[in-house]
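Can anyone check this?
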Amino acid sequence: MSFALTIPRPLAHLPTASDAIRLFTPNWFAANMGTGILALLLGQFDSLPLLHGGGFVLWAANSVVFSLFALLFAGRWLWHFDGARRMLGHPVMSMSLGCIPMALATIANGFLIFGIDVFGPIAIGIVQVLWWLEIALAVGCGLAVPVLMMTRHDHRAEEMTGVWLLPIVAAEVAAVTGALLLPHLPAADQPGVLLVSFILWSFSVPPALGLVALLFIRMILHKLPQANMAASCWLALGPIATGALGLLLLGEAAPAALIGTNLAPFPDVIAGACLLLSVLLWGYGVWWMGLAALITARYFTNHVPFNLGWWAYVFPLGVQTLTTFRLARIWDSFALGAFGVSLAVALILIWTVVASRTIAGAWRGTLFAAPCLADR
């Protein structure tokens, strides 16, 4: 008796392979976000070569996949312009445009953690170019998509979900990149980059927190979204955790960046204020994380269909985990460190499930869908 392993042909569920371009949507970049944040987390463990090396492999693979996605997205605009343009009018797919600069941020930040050892000082120049591109995309999404929501989309309060946050959060992610880049820059450039990073943080965090409050009220008044949007409740953790991480990093970088400037007498004040606000945001994130976990447990008492939205379980939790480890180091807290380890283990397990199902769905072609074309 013999057994043969049957592997389905690539994109078997699509009429033609070229439909992968026609149906490519920006929410695919959420896979880069989730994989990238796990790579960055593993890259923090310099003393554990296996984990650090695993982070490098993930970052390198994620960079290749990001490049592929960028080509597919550009191809859609080049060869299927009308369909790509219709995406801007879709109330959900247009929100996913914010995933692109956030995915790019994980690639840029990886150059600072892994790329310097591989490419040398040229990695810093690469990050600077990527950071300004990230800023342009993040600010563009943060302004253009809300205008589209106000002028072209049909939104209702009872249909609001966490995806509304995606175009807004991108700017604070760019602020984190700026903070990580600061120590690698010449002293003369650091004050300007610090200022831009603080502005990016404020460009995003206040409106995002306002939307989080509205989302909480919406879920009380209109109950939970339908099952195919189950993961969206985790998206609110994103701006909270990223806001906390950004302040931690900016507070650490500020004293050195402000030497020789008019603010030189106040670095301790700025650093202390950043630390305090970061702790408060982190605590808020712990509350929302607990709420989201309970909501998720309720969803999974029934069937929850898999889709690319499941990557919302990964990136926000990853940022909260990074912030937890950073706070544990600053406070020299064993309890925070242990909590961070538990979050990291959960993150790895969740990423494994979501990544494996995404790879399978991408291979078969079942995950390629463009709701903006459904009415054609």
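Reply from J.R.: I decoded it. The chain has twelve helices and no strands.
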